Amino acid sequence: MNGNSIPVPSFFSLVLLFTCGNSFAQVPGIPLQEAEAYSGITESRLMFQDNCAVCHGENLEGAAQGTPLRGNLLHGESMDEIIESITTGYETAGMPGWRDIIAPVEIAGLAMYILETRDNVGYATSNYDAPLEIPTEEFATAHHSFRLETVVADLAPLPFSIAPLPDGRILVTEKTQGVRIISTDGSKSELIEGTPTAYDDIYRLESRIDIERGMGWLFDINLHPDYEQNGWIYLYHSDRCEGCNEISREQQRPVSMNRLVRGRLDGNQWIDQEVIWEAPKEDYFFAGDVGAGGRLAFDNRGHVFFSLGLKCGGQGGGIQDLATPCGKIHRINDDGSVPQDNPYYGRDDVYQSIYTYGHRSPQGLEYDAVNGELWQSEHGPRGGDEINRLLPGENYGWPLYSLGLHYDGTRVNGRDLGIPFELADIQQPVVDLTPSPAVSSFIISDSVQFPNWQGDFIVGSLKLRTLFRVDIENNRFVERETLAEGVGRIRDVEQGFDGTIYLLIEHGAGGQILRLIPTA
Questions:
Q1: 326 and 308 in contact (C-beta within 8 Å)?
Q2: What is the mean pLDDT of the chain?
Q3: Stretch 250-274: mean pLDDT, rounded?
Q4: Out of 17-21, 389-393, 455-459, which region has the weakest mean confidence (pLDDT)?
Q5: Domain count, the chain
Q6: Any bridge partners for residue 493, and if so which?
Q7: How far is residue 454's CA from residue 434's CA, in Å, rounded to a whole number?
Q8: What is the CA 333 to chain-centroid distance, rounded?
Q9: Sign of dihedral through CA atoms 124, 161, 297, 373?
Q10: Is residue 72 located within the same domain as residue 219?
């Protein structure tokens, strides 16, 4: 299987976009089984099928009187370029403009639907239960060839994180189960005794039955940089309690909040646990853990960073409120104390551990020791997945601004929330991933097994089930290359002490750990 290098979209494309006009039909009513919150997605799909498919095919494959919308597009392939094509049209080629017929919000939704369909990342499924067969062929990419090898194939369906140990074994967290050790021969231990409780009472919303939700899950596990000397292992989890604050007592429901602990391993026992960071119980809430963030990263100066996503109530989920912990990247010393050079150190009205804010659903978090920079990936709404360089004290936009759309088809505009802001004050992503592949974890590779990937981002995706290489030079996006497709929902990407690159796959039939084996 060949890799596919995707540079910044070119204006010199090969296929004409929208060359066939058609009278605009009225959009049928939204199916009752689809939640109103996602009505824009349904409307975009129906709008295309009823008015555009006759020329461009139901799956963008083209028709007798129109060109396909797959492959390269003559007038550009970005969101803004496709919106412009729909809005103004190309009369000489038979494509009318729709500005006087379709509202701008509907045109934006239609453009997003085209992008989603082109990339096979439609919103309707998360591919959690899609057939999973790990590819056995060699993947030939721009700089290296490799194949995939299965380390273990019978994990719980919802694993979250792996941490390779110096001796070749691997720690793995299963969100609703606990922590296990995977031996070098691929056998797995019983659950480690003494770790924080993991709850398995999963539920689903009627509007998104493909996504599991719960409260009290285990998240990232990571070794202290001096693990071989001190033995410390850091475990990030969702601490759950019932009746522990006013809102829990009023609703008679459990609440939770992310918490960071550390401990050591003694055989199959978790010992010496210390709480490194936790929020006051009054800030615990009953938002599910699906958007809780949950990643850790260490720098080379004694600090640990951790992400916290959509876990709070209040206006916009409290993400723009520095008095809540949610929608933030936090930074503390590895013993739990707050560094004096933190952006909000010494202020009593905020969380002093906050490093950056304005994050929606953080997915990956890595420190680039070579350049002394912190990087993060996160989910947008409908589109707008991001890779960000994190600068202390900066605002990354949510829910004020995003390059994606709300699920109802409207633009993300925080002014609707009554929160004043200037776009110039919001940090823009270094890499915009629209349409959304559901970006997940990543590493910044320094693997000796793949030397030509030095400094590149090796990035996983969930919905698209693809592994990417992203080249960023001088904090600017250069290219994105597809390394492997059809791998499965890649929840975590990690690098071992010997340079082995591991992938953690989640699937309804059971999670797996794979490794990349370089070939000639």
A1: yes
A2: 89
A3: 97
A4: 17-21
A5: 2
A6: 503
A7: 26
A8: 26
A9: negative
A10: no
Residue 328 lies in a domain: yes
Q: Name the pLDDT band for 1 (thresholds 50, 70, 90).
A: very low
Q: Which tokens sit at 498?
A: 């010997």
Phi, psi dihedrals of residue 149, rounded to the nearest 5°: -130, 135
Q: Which residue has the tokens 């909040």?
A: 257
Confidence band, pLDDT 50/70/90 cuts, at residue 7: very low
Beta bridge partners of 518: 146
Question: Domain ends where: 404, 426, 443?
Answer: 443
Predicted TM-score (pTM) of this structure: 0.90
Beta strands in 301-400 (DSSP E): 303-308, 328-333, 354-357, 361-368, 373-379, 385-390
Give the CATH number for residue 80. Answer: 1.10.760.10
Secondary structure class of 193 (helix, strand, coil):
strand
How does DSSP classify residue 391? Answer: -
Q: Do residues 410 and 296 share a domain?
A: yes
DSSP string for residues in 465-496:
--EEEEEEETTEEEEEEEEESS--EEEEEEE-
User: Does 237 score more than 60 pLDDT?
Assistant: yes
Average pLDDT over residues 379-398: 97
Which residue reads 């739990």 in tokens? 336
Q: Strands 303-308 and 501-506, how do they pair?
A: unpaired
* Cα–Cα dist 478/57, whole Å: 33
Q: What is the pLDDT of residue 361?
A: 96
* DSSP class of 316: G
Domain co-membership, 106 together with 180: no
What are the φ/ψ torsions at residue 80 (nearest 5 degrees)? Answer: -65, -40
In the numeric block, which tokens belong to residue 460? 């996983």
| pLDDT tens-digit map of 405-440 | 988 888 898 877 888 899 999 999 999 999 999 999
